[in-house]
Amino acid sequence: MRVGKVAALLAVVALCVACTPATKSTEDGVEGTAGARSAGDPYYPTSGNGGYDASNYVVAITYDPKSHHLDGDTTITAKATQDLSEFSLDLDGMDVRTVTVDGRAADTDRDGGKLVISPADAVAKGSTFTIEVQYAGVPNPVKSTKLGAEGWQISSSGGAFVAGEPHSASTWYPVNDTPTDKAAFHLAAKVPDGWSVISNGVQGRNESKDGWTTYRWDEPDPIAPYLTTVGVDHWTMSTGKLADGTPLVSAFAPGTEDKKALEDRLPEILDFLSSKFGKYPQDAAGGIFLADKISFSLETQTRPIYAHWTDLSTIVHENAHQWWGDSVSVQNWRDVCLNECFASYAQWLWAEAKDGANLDDNYRKLVQKGAQVFAGKLYDMGAGNEFGAVYTKGPMALHALRRTIGDDAFFKILKTWPALHRDGNATWPQFESYVELISGQDLKGFFDAWFRGATQPANQYLWPGNLKP
Which fold has domain 330-467? Predict the structure, then answer.
């Protein structure tokens, strides 16, 4: 995400997850207990759920832009990580009509943004099971005083789009809304003829009947829920292929014709980023260009969403996330520098390669601004502070790291780290250990000064190598 003038997110209130209802037995006599109503991230304790791992979402929606009404039918495949008498999904608003677990009707309850499900029989640990949820209503965004609306939003054209970090998916389908539970994602979206639909992954076969058209999109690679999206609009579509055959689909809302020249450079951008980060890790590419002036653009997987103010540097940033943040996702939101610091430094690398920027000089000029550029931690920055220093201090810290360990080690790390953790999750401390392994250096002082501190690092860490004035 590139947030522009927005500096932070609103911290959320902790949710008690200690309550456990009475156990329930399966037909085989297995007793179960309730899965946690939290994924355990200390910054967002109301997000996500425990007791199972999702592997696949099949989301079918029918949406009428005129009434804003949505009918949904989502089927989730998951594996139980404990004997489950009860489990929960994240779903904001919407009226739930029916819920089945392995084809049998289940009891349900609503607890804030949680859909609590009690299957007819407990689900045994290690078993794979399916949940089908049928629901309807008018989806609404999650409100944040820092970032504004996130999730399902009405566009200026009268269509709709979904964008938000760290939350958005639960505004339009039931989901385990945590980046640690990545799963395949498949969408069938039915809209009135004349409207069209863009989403993640590879486009499937469209079908038209009785004045409605169903659009299909498939993302078989694991995807964090907040990186899923859908856009309904009078899109102008641009299609093509990358050199390796990867399909490229970009969508332009009415009024964004001026962005087509920028997106024409996407193959060049991805070639450049691949030279730095390794082979492009996604099965599709492209972009979604909104006419709306939302406060951020977002790295929705395979196909970033762009606000109307987007420039070329933003496109570089969001596509760098396809490695840093999408293919390799955070374990907890305290690790978000793994996403944003690297996507921001990709903009520096682009400027160096394409515009002849002297990054050492740029670094020195930023240092001269004084304390303001060093405020804020880059690791474990506290809830609500994730999206601030990572965009300014973050790339400075990575440039200082580059000058500390040298280009050979630095660029080796940029290529091998995404491959090592592809389609998974990682933490910042794991990255620090990896850098020390590859560089052969003890960097505890450097990392503490730059990433755990909120003041100007000591000169030995501030002016490494040829950054010395």
Answer: Neutral Protease; domain 2 (1.10.390)
